[in-house]
């Protein structure tokens, strides 16, 4: 299968089905680039982290944390004004479809699998009392691990933590094989 042109639906369908680059699964933050309008992004609810306003955001290594505050399901509320990194980023899976090396149907299947695993990780984190949905997946896992290590856990929590660890490992393998290298 060949990719459709820029006004076609194959790349758009893949991105709108996925969203893993915006929801805190793949990235913990997004670095700002020259030309990104910080005021406009902040007014849209995106939270600036790192750096200060003494230099331009890009020069000062400013970034926006993930999950992105402008991410609404699988749509971007600030799509026309999104940061440069978001404009140019293409995951390995999308690149392979656009190059004709992978069928869109196969890519969508991989996305469903990755989203199912990520959803399972989020569910387990909530069950283990980590309900801060504003942190990226890795940060939540690390915080939960530290908390359980410090306070100890009962058999039920230990079992859920084991399941969480295995599920996150499987998700990370899938992400590294199909979404980035």
Briefly, what is this?
It is built from 7 helices and 5 strands. It has 181 residues and is mainly α.
Tell me the layout of helices and strands.
Layout: H1 10-18, E1 29-31, H2 38-43, E2 48-49, E3 63-65, E4 71-72, E5 75-76, H3 84-88, H4 92-98, H5 104-127, H6 137-151, H7 155-178
Antiparallel strand pairs: 1-3, 2-3, 4-5
Describe the model:
The protein has 181 residues and is mainly alpha-helical. It folds into two domains: 64 residues, no CATH class; 86 residues, no CATH class. The protein contains seven helices and five strands; from the N terminus they run αβαββββααααα. The strands form two sheets. Strands 1-3-2 form a three-stranded antiparallel beta sheet, with no helix packed on it. Strands 4-5 form a two-stranded antiparallel sheet. A hairpin with a 2-residue loop joins strand 4 and strand 5. The longest helix is centred in the middle third of the chain and has 24 residues.
Considering DSSP H and I runs of 4 or more, what fraction of the residues is helical?
A: 40-55%
Instruction: Please identify the structural class as seen in this structure.
Output: mainly alpha
Oligomer: single chain
Radius of gyration: 18 Å
Q: What portion of residues belong to β-strands?
A: 5-15%
Strand order, sheet with most strands: 1-3-2
**Helix and strand element order:** HEHEEEEHHHHH
First-residue to last-residue Cα separation: 23 Å
Shape: globular
Main β sheet profile: 3 strands, antiparallel
Number of domains: 2
> Which parts are unreliable, with pLDDT below 50 for 5 consecutive residues or more?
1-8
Counted beta strands: 5
Tally of separate helices? 7
Mean pLDDT: 88
